[in-house]
Amino acid sequence: MSTSTLKEQKSATLNAEIATFIGEIFSFNNSLKLYHWHVTGKGSYSQHIALDQALGDLLDVTDRLVETSYAVKGDLDIVIPETKRPSDIVKHAETFFSYTESQRKLFAEAFTQAVIDDYQEAIQQLLYRLKRLQ
Questions:
Q1: What pTM did the predictor assign?
Q2: Model confidence over 80-92: pLDDT tens digits?
Q3: Where are the beta strands (DSSP E) in 3-130?
């Protein structure tokens, strides 16, 4: 196998992993909206507002990540997996924060790492609001 073919295969694999990660981000964002629509009970209005604020921040950062990835990697075949409403929103957000950290390895560029920092910051802000409102 030639070096260029091996390099192309590695690039294709990396692009597929990036596309999967971005699909998971879309699914996470959508899961927050599903929870947002179903929140009830004590503190529900505060949670509703906190989720709305987080969604605005996360969608902006998601757009930046997708556009940056397209600029660096070319077209990506992004598929959004089935999205379910989480039962425990705090655990769900904490788990996804850890997942995003584990996917940093997909992005070598400092500017893309900064976008992921912004995404994780938005999750941390959401967690702060949700935990303080309990």
A1: 0.91
A2: 999 999 999 999 9
A3: none
Domain that holds residue 52: 3-132
> At a CB cut-off of 8 Å and minimum separation 6, what does 11 contact?
73
Cβ burial, residue 32 (10 Å; 0-12/13-18/19+): buried
What is the sign, positive or negative, of the torsion defined by CA atoms of 16, 20, 125, 92? negative
The pLDDT, as a whole number, for residue 49 is 92
CATH number at residue 33: 1.20.1260.10
* Cβ atoms 86, 92 nearer than 8 A: yes
Residues 6 or more apart in contact with residue 130 via CB below 8 angstroms: 47, 50, 89, 90, 93
Condensed to tens digits (0 to 9), the pLDDT of residues 4-29 reads 687 788 889 999 999 999 999 999 99
Using an 8 Å Cβ cutoff, are 113 and 107 in contact? yes
Q: What gap in Å lies between CA 55 and CA 93, rounded to an integer?
A: 12
Q: Number of structural domains, the chain?
A: 1
